[in-house]
Amino acid sequence: MLTGLNHLTLAVQNLDRSVDFYHHLLGFRLRARWDTGAYLSLDILWLCLSLDPIEAAGPSPDYTHFAFGIEQDNFGQFLQRLRAHEVIEWRQNRSEGDSLYFLDPDGHKLEAHVGDLNSRLAQCRALPYSGMCFFD
Predict the structure, then answer these.
(1) CA distances for 24 relative to 81, 82, 91, 130, angstroms
(2) What is the pLDDT at residue 62?
(3) In DSSP terms, which residues pair with 69 in a beta bridge?
């Protein structure tokens, strides 16, 4: 049976640029690197960057994205840091808790979110989405 998320692999067009983005700008720990890839970590998250030089047409138009947690006390500084590096924002926050929705250099949709599932469920209990049911 499944035990949880094991790792994420993202196809990247330029390995140096992507390692720089995730390691230096976002603060992931660089764990290993080779000619066509790299392993990084953030807490228990294992991220693999895999060189895939096929040019993408840009970010997918759907809402699929990867969200990383961030403490409220660090959110403003993080926001300023990414904006100073002219990182592209792809959506405005519409949910509880501060969030920054941004793209990596290859157009992967990312989010930095203050809060967790429990804070989201508490907000949803107060203001449920249309047709929402809770399973406790």
Answers:
(1) 11, 11, 23, 41
(2) 85
(3) 113
A 10 A CB-CB count for 87 gives 19
Q: In 99-128, which positions are buried (b, 16+ CB within 10 angstroms) versus exposed (e)?
A: bbbbbbbbebbbbbbbbeeeeeeeeeeeee
Q: What are φ and ψ of residue 73, in 5° steps?
A: -65, -25
With a cut of 90, say whether residue 28 has pLDDT above it: yes
Question: In angstroms, rounded to a whole number, what is the distance separating the alpha carbons of residues 48 and 15?
Answer: 11
CA pseudo-torsion sign 2, 66, 42, 117: negative
Structure tokens at 4: 């949880």
Total-model pTM: 0.87
Query: What does the alpha-carbon distance between residue 84 and residue 34 come to, in Å, rounded to a whole number?
Result: 30
Q: Is residue 2's pLDDT more than 90?
A: no
Q: Among the options 55, 86, 96, 111, which is catalytic?
A: 111
Query: Is 71 annotated in the active site?
Result: no
pLDDT in tens, 45-102: 999 999 998 776 678 888 889 999 999 999 999 999 999 999 999 999 988 889 999 9
Q: Report the alpha-carbon distance of residue 97 to residue 80 in Å, rounded.
A: 17
